[in-house]
Structure to design on (324 residues):
């Protein structure tokens, strides 16, 4: 069986794959708790029998039981809902891996912490588990509803009713990043609203490379450029010209960006709002609270809109189902 054939038949094996993955991941966590080496499981602490490792073993052991129930009871409707909770658990374990492409920017930064390769591999395995569990939950739900497990019985849908919300999602994603990109560009140009400190706002010479500092001194903030690329991604997912680009890279970037930035931005938005209302104090004393809430918190809106745009793009560009 070729990899292409294997992927095309995912509803038939996703449940078994989720079961095997859960058993292996729980076993690894148990070994890490008993033998001492963290193997990347101990996200909060390290050492023999640590809480995170033991907790991971228990939770993913329970996930394996749930996966077995999915296989044995294909008609139980509440099981897919529980399976989505396992997806959230996997994403929590693998969340740092979604931000790992930041390491590719090493040429723009210095004094980065060394990469814990065991932890990074473990986190990517957790993301793989989230994918397998999502497929298992989706296939099980479609079977209980009596629809096609491959497409949900809806076939290939396009049209103005689907295109209009997708276009709005792209525009919302662009708008969510405008405050961040504009603020960082103003700072690079020497205009510093929301900043009361001295030196270069948003640039720490201890961690920013010489190239990054040179670009900043010429009015170019690297993170603002990345925000512009994020806007371009959202538009590519929702505009006709994006259909001429490779499909899989767009989907990978879209889902990765949505999964990483939505929770990250939600945390920053909540933190900034609490500081803005005086409930807590901002750790960055030279930054106004609204900077964290509005500019940095905009990543949440971007991540949510990007997820909506990516989902619409995936539906609009998939081939018509031939198995219904």
């Amino acid at each position: 069986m070729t990899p292409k054939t294997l992927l095309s038949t995912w509803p038939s094996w996703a449940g078994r794959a989720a079961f095997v993955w859960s058993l292996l991941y729980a076993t690894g966590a148990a070994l890490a708790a008993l033998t001492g080496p963290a193997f990347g499981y101990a996200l909060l602490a390290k050492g023999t029998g640590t809480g995170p490792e033991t907790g991971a073993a228990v939770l993913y052991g329970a996930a394996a039981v749930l996966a077995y129930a999915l296989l044995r009871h294909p008609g139980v409707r509440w099981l897919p809902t529980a399976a989505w909770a396992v997806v959230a658990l996997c994403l929590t374990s693998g969340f740092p891996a979604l931000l790992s492409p930041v390491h590719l920017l090493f040429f723009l930064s210095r004094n980065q912490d060394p990469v814990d390769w065991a932890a990074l591999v473990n986190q990517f395995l957790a993301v793989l588990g989230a994918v397998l569990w999502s497929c298992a939950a989706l296939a099980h739900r479609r079977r209980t509803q009596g629809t096609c497990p491959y497409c949900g019985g809806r076939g290939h849908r396009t049209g103005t009713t689907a295109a209009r919300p997708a276009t709005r999602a792209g525009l919302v994603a662009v708008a969510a990043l405008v405050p961040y990109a504009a603020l960082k560009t103003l700072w690079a140009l020497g205009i510093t609203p929301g900043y009361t400190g001295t030196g270069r706002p948003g640039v720490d010479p201890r961690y920013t490379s010489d190239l990054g500092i040179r670009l900043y001194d010429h009015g170019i903030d690297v993170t603002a450029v990345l925000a512009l690329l994020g806007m371009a991604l959202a538009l590519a997912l929702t505009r006709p010209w994006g259909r001429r680009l490779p499909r899989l890279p767009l989907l990978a970037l879209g889902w990765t960006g949505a999964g990483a930035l939505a929770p990250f931005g939600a945390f920053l938005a909540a933190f900034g709002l609490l500081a803005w209302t005086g409930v807590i104090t901002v750790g960055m004393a030279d930054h106004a609270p609204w900077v964290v809430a509005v500019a940095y918190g905009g990543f949440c809106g971007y991540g949510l809109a990007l997820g909506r745009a990516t989902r619409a793009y995936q539906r609009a560009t998939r081939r018509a189902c031939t198995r219904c």
